[in-house]
Amino acid sequence: MKPVFLLIGTLLLFIVLGLVHVSQGQASSGFFRFWQEVWHDEQQMNFLLHSRMPRFVIGCLTGAALAIAGMLLQTMTKNPLASASTLGIHAGAYFFVVCFTIFFPAIGHAFPLLVTLAGGFTAAFCVTFLVGKSLDPVRIALTGLIITMLFSSLTSALQLLFANEVAGLFLWGSGTLMQLDWSGVTFASPWIIILVLIGLLISHRFDFLLLGDDVAIGLGQNITITKAFGWLIAILLTSITVSVVGPIGFVGIIAPHLVRLMGFTKHRSMIIGNSIVGASLLITADIVARLVSATSELPVGAMTAIIGAPWLIYLALKMRKQTQTSGSTLEGKVRITHYKSFYFTLLAITFVLVVVSLSFGGTSFTKLVELPQELMYNSYVWEFRVPRVLVSFLVGTMMAGSGLLMQTVLRNPLADTSVLGVSSGASVFAMLFLLIFQQAPILFVPIGALIGAFLTMGLILGISARSGFQPMLLILMGIAISAVGSAIIQILLVRANLYAGLALTWLTGSTYGTNWQDFIIICVASLVILPIIVLFASTFDILSFDDEVSIGLGVKASHMRLFMIVLAVTLSALSVAIVGTIGFIGLLAPHIARQLVGPKLMRLLPLSLMIGGMLLISADFLGRLLLAPKEIPSGIIVSLIGAPYLLYLLKKVNAVQAK
Fold it and tell me: How far is CA 159 from each of CA 153, 188, 323, rounded to the nearest angstrom?
């Protein structure tokens, strides 16, 4: 009886929230006065029925759909962290909407559901294909995060290159319940109601999955068909909501857990409970969003992320016994035997890249014989082009070094400060300085990035200290921190209006505007940090094994792990402060190096640094060349270069770990 009473209490709370929600608005005169006016003023009644009620109803439908989709995804994957946002379905749907808005606007306008459905299925297929048969919760969450990063990078690229075509998608892309009429409700309600009814009719099939695949098969169930129905319903529900209100995350994570805590264990009752709880959560988030900003529209999707992230951190802490290090090691093969000739070749390639990059002036190439003269007598080349090329190479080395340390400390070849959430925290504070203090010197932007990176690091380490900084717990917390950072950035972008283009350029990572001062900062930091890494290289190598092995060899695992994280975050913070957020280099460079020279840190370090430098200098050059005289931010080019390789890497790593 307890679950029933709790459900009734939730329903009563939902009614109260609904009354508060429809009484809100920029022209609202207050809760009690609003309801008094409604019954005596026909104009106010029409305003309620045709303006505020559509927003409330679409919020209820969307919240219920997202909650049920999250519940089904958690059942299908046996992953308590699964939802449309953590599995990349939202990011894929949003990417497809942006693509069709730019290249096929007529199709996108005529068939919005098919567009979002295609994007959602594409992302879901990528995650399930890359994870394979493994259902490890952390592995699925991490793979979903990387897929989200891939689609988000591509979406940012399109938003920058086609700013006019997608100008109206900023608010929608952050999730908004704003409705001008009943058209959104009319479109979404039949689909959602039919899918929920289908879910109720076949709910008993999902109950068998909770017993385990082997038991379900033994009881005569065709689990393949059941899972296919579950995935189809979940993705359809998600696609419908995205097509109407945009991507809204975290409802699909929070609501199913709350329903389970209420005591419901059967899917039929869970679907009913999730409908009420999901609607209540989203309506609450919209109320809070309008309380925070009564004069302008804030994205409710960003608000759900801010509200939901603490819940995700709670789940991560609750799962820490399941996320203890399992004894995996970072593997690699020694394919290079002639080191002198190999490094000589790399240096030669790097030199060619530097010369070619220096010779390109934005519209044409300088002849090779004329380049020395330009370097000596052309002040523009010396003051802008030369430091830009050098800073690109050095920042690439810093990102690679940071990624190498993070992969070693987390014993995961997919780890990076962007996964940990540090880059997101740095971006938030840099954005605050960039948009709020617009008249302040540009020096405040890197200062803000440094502050944000270290505050984020302190928050993550402070929460995870009691667990000894366990690698998987750090990754789960990083996902939550990244979600909050992205939500705050979305709010800032929506509020910024005129400065959104500048902010997006910085957020995607650009070497434009770097100077000799940046070069000096990087050189000093490298001269301080690199010798420390070399000095502790043998100790860091030991940390790539089990904690038990490390302790047995006399290494204080938690202390050294903290020390390595501080070094990695310092390198990452400096990189973000100078060129903005550029992902993938910290992921790709160490892994490529590991496949060439093996897992030993002293062999990995120089090669990782060189590969990272070569990647960023190549991205900077291509960004200036491809659409000259326009420039594509380096971060976008890196994403386009790194995406295919990262997809291959994800599949390979998960296949090996599944054996």
Answer: 10, 27, 37
Least confident window among 81-90, 242-251, 356-365, 545-554: 545-554
Where residue 327 falls among pLDDT bands split at 50, 70, 90? very low
Q: Which residue stretches of 411-515 are H helix?
A: 417-420, 422-436, 444-464, 471-496, 500-507
Query: CA angle at residue 413 from 549 to 459, to 5 degrees?
Result: 80
Class of domain 339-658: mainly alpha
Q: Please report, as a single letter, which amino acid is at residue 571.
A: L
Selection from 461, 449, 484 nearest residue 409 by Cα: 461
pLDDT tens-place string over residues 23-82: 776 555 666 677 766 676 666 677 777 778 898 999 999 999 999 999 999 888 887 778
Least Cα distance to 247 among 23, 459, 88, 11 occurs for 88
Burial label for 299, CB within 10 Å (0-12, 13-18, 19+), is buried
Dist. CA 537–CA 546, nearest whole Å: 17
pLDDT, tens only, 81-104: 788 887 888 889 889 999 998 888
Task: Please give the structure tokens belonging to residue 102.
Answer: 């730019």
Alpha-carbon distance of 620 to 420, in angstroms, equals 25
Dist. CA 565–CA 581, nearest whole Å: 18
Smallest CA-to-CA distance from 247 within 287, 294, 193, 304 is with 304
Answer yes or no: is pLDDT of 191 > 90: yes
Considering the chain, tell me which residue range(s) the CATH 1.10.3470.10 domain(s) occupy.
Answer: 54-318, 339-658
Q: DSSP character for 334?
A: B
Residues 6 or more apart whose CB falls under 8 angstroms from that of 18 comprise: 56, 60, 283
What is the second-level CATH architecture of the domain 54-318? Answer: Orthogonal Bundle (1.10)
Quote the CA–CA distance of 499 and 103 in Å, as a whole number.
25
State percent of the chain over pLDDT 70.
79
How many Cα atoms are found within 13 Å in the side-chain-facing hemisphere of 59?
A: 28
Structure tokens at 263: 């005591």
Over its C-alpha atoms, the chain yields an Rg (Å, rounded) of 26
Map tokens 């002293």 to a residue: 602
**Residue written as token pair 């082997």:** 214
What DSSP state is assigned to residue 659? -
